[in-house]
Amino acid sequence: MTKTNSFVEYILHDVMRNVPGIRARAMFGGWGIYQNEVVFGIIADDQLYFKVDEKNLSDYKTRGSKAFTYEGPKRKLIAMSYWEVPADILEDTAALTGWIKKAVQASRRNKKKHG
Predict the structure, then answer these.
(1) 31, 7 in Cβ contact below 8 A?
(2) Which of 7, 53, 65, 89 is in Cβ range 3.0-4.6 Å of 46 for a Cys bridge?
(3) What's the rounded Cα separation, in Å, for the pair 24 and 12?
(4) What is the pTM of this model?
(5) If we measure between CA atoms, which residue out of 33, 20, 14, 37 comes closest to residue 90?
(6) What does the pLDDT look like over 88-97, one tens digit per residue?
């Protein structure tokens, strides 16, 4: 059975409707967001996060975004290289397209580094 979520539907069909090659896949209790087979985002607890690295991290920090975190062994908080997408970016199609492009590039660089 396919897992559905209204926030995921909103992101895919409203927010990213004009971005080609976007799809979501359920994973680890959340969703992976892909463009043309490159995972560049995640949705967890009705929050959208994009992949960051040294080239786009400052975009998120200057807007007060935070990294996606989860509780690991011994209740240790683990931060991932996915950061919250600011609400104003979700409402600005042109800006969002640029942020997606940077997140896809960050994901590709990370894959080359660790792949």
Answers:
(1) no
(2) 7
(3) 8
(4) 0.90
(5) 14
(6) 999 999 999 9
Q: In the chain, what are the domains?
A: 6-114 (3.30.1460.30)
For 15-57, the DSSP string reads: ITTTSTTEEEEEETTEEEEEETTEEEEEEETTEEEEE--TTTH
Strand partners, 39: 34
Q: Cα separation of 17 and 97, whole Å? A: 11
Neighbouring C-beta atoms of residue 49, cutoff 10 Å? 24
Dihedral of CA 11/16/17/19: which sign? Answer: negative
Provide the residue type at 83 as one letter. Answer: W
